[in-house]
Amino acid sequence: MQPKFIRKVNLATGQDFTVDVLGVNKFKADTNGIGATALFPLADDGGALGSTALKFSDVFLASGCVININSGAVTITHSTNSLAFAGASSGYSFDAVIASNGDISSSDVIVPESLGDDILTDGGLELWDDSDTLTNWTDGQAGPPGGSLAQETVEVYAGTYSAKLTNSWYIAQTKTSLTVADNYRLKYYSKGSGTSSAFFLNDTAGGATKIYNFTNNDWNDNWTGSPVAANLVTTAAGGTFALVTVEDVSVPATGTLTSVIQADTVSTVYVDTISLQKVTAATNVVAHDFYSANNHASYTSSDYVFKYRTTAGTARTQLALRGDGLIESYFSTLTWTGIGFSGINSLNVKEFAEIYDATNDGNPYLKIGSSAAECLIAQPIYDAGAQTLDYVLFDTAVASATADKGKYVFKVDGVEVCQIKDDGITMTTKMIQGAQGTDIASANDATLTITGNYFDITGNTQINTLSATGIQAGTLIVLQFDSNPVVKHATAGAGAQFQLAGAGDFSATAGDTLGVIFDGTYWRECFRTAI
Q1: Structure pTM?
Q2: Which residue spans of the chain are classified as CATH 2.60.120.260?
């Protein structure tokens, strides 16, 4: 006798439908919905709640609930006003900026990492022996015949060429003499129609191969066979190149890693700009709590954009970066009124392309020293209300207690050249060298350009005055005459008059020189030579 199945149950108003197993209620349906002690799929990983077309509107979970993924591999546990994430040994990833209106804290050490230089030879794929042979890469067929490698000049991410891989074709490069247990990260850009995969040939016992699992962001060890869906990354057909990041793999006992990038079966993939970089965790960095006093919409001069502190609510003086503008992703652009460090003994700041203040009336500065009273200040000064540089100020703190009072010592190739102190400039090992300026054409009102301190006077026209625009009192210049003009004493004109020896004119001949110093009003004769 065939079992009979209930296909439809009609309940009168106020009635409900229950299922009991061994006297225990396991399922109930009424006008309020469906209730059950547990719902199970028919097999592990064999069911879904909802679909892309029919989705549930809301999920309501009780206090203390646990979302359990893969039998406890990763859990999300609720407690009063908090969620605890646990089990993700490879970390948690986010594809956008994390915005917080409160504290982001960590009970453990947060250690940033750095990437070393690319160790691959021609990772840009620019060197080819011919149109289907890369100079520094090996290639071949990993699957059914019909694939190929070709030099590509149209679908290119950077440079002139990329590699076009079709139907299970691969490119590979081996690096030897690497330090055992060091971690390396493989990255490449790809696009096309289909999928690609990434491998490391470890050269361990038995020639084991690691293939990257893009679903779990980790490696499948001792792998053989064809890539499955989890080992493949889909490239964008007709779109732009996308960065593929293959997370860290450890160098085996042989000290050798072979990087392999392969197109999947029936795929056409363009690959470019491949890199293999050593991953190093930064040292001496302990960050227990990152704090933002404002959201990412706007900042004022008093807002702390990025701060370090040990305990929420305590004084935050260990590290403070303060800004008037937004901080873009990965600190690629910063706009600051000041950067201050307190209690840091050593700091390595690398590859700052620009540090500036975007406001019209700000004068950003850099202080270097052990205290505010014993430091060097470097500061560009701008015209008020405009982003026009007026001058650059180098200063030492006025409260310096040393006898030298913060003198400046200048060295070239380790050899001291001069000192600047509060009593003047002292040349210690070298000399002050002058420069010959642009020739001055003799004229009743001759024009001096600030191009040196030694000038040839051309022509023989009488000279009554010499311009002094921009010349500081105390400036000494020497005039050498190429002809025979007359330099007039105390004769009015457009420029500064000459005050000459004996209150008389100077009749020059070719080769004569006249030394004069500007006193703020006149050019006063210091010496002359008659050749």
Answers
A1: 0.38
A2: 117-281
